[in-house]
């Protein structure tokens, strides 16, 4: 599949006109915390909602991660088709971006649900990392997905993930939020304890940032004031830097062994050893940070500094760390792009192929 043909034809702001078949494709970025939905060919999703909202709406009283449990995913999909998009799934193809923990058995179960329960025309379950990369018009790079429940890097070459080189980190958005809550709660009399994780996440996203130099930031930076929903002023000092520092100093969070830069360096070192300099050089020129955790100010600059420290001079002089322009919508936008490719039907699974091969067709055909 020649993805470069599509990507090179794109301008910065305009997607190519989708073929008539892909015009009906539904694109879903099913995240641990938020789900993004819309139609292929659009620049951004038409709706973004908390993934758990579908569980609440179904009155099941569950707060499980839909990206982990296929049965919960069925509830979310039903909610999307009926309540969010108001469509009959039988009239559409579906692309669902998946995270790394969606293991083989769960992928097959989801394929079964899509064709048996929702009777879709076509289905494709690509990795979110690849979709984020496609959203930038690139097809080669090392993509680090910093999600709420999962963080992992995937090297992608000429549009396809390189199998056997995926590496994960225990530093996730949920753990950073929990760490931030503990920092605020243990901050002394000048801080109001924050025990609501949703509120803590909102505060984290608004005030926390990466310190280029932690010692200077802790010594010189003034406190910032965040107004809580009840009108109370919350004064936040060094906590706003200590939170993001856990991405670089894993000892700050229990059960975390590797920092984000260490995971990236381990992947690059393995690539150099097993795939050679040419492949590795092309990949280090495009290290991308995606997902909600990539929004921290100064993150790109700090990651480059730390990654360069552990690489040889040849690679360190060529590394480029970026974040996708589409931000937290990058994975969804990449899926929208892929559905518009003329060869989308060749890489996706048709209802006829499912009937012939069963759910195992996903492992036989899916290259993403």
From TrEMBL:
InterPro entries: Actin, ATPase_NBD. Gene3D superfamilies: 3.30.420.40, Actin, Chain A, domain 4 (3.90.640.10). Actins are highly conserved proteins that are involved in various types of cell motility and are ubiquitously expressed in all eukaryotic cells. Belongs to the actin family. This is Actin. It comes from Mizuhopecten yessoensis (Japanese scallop).
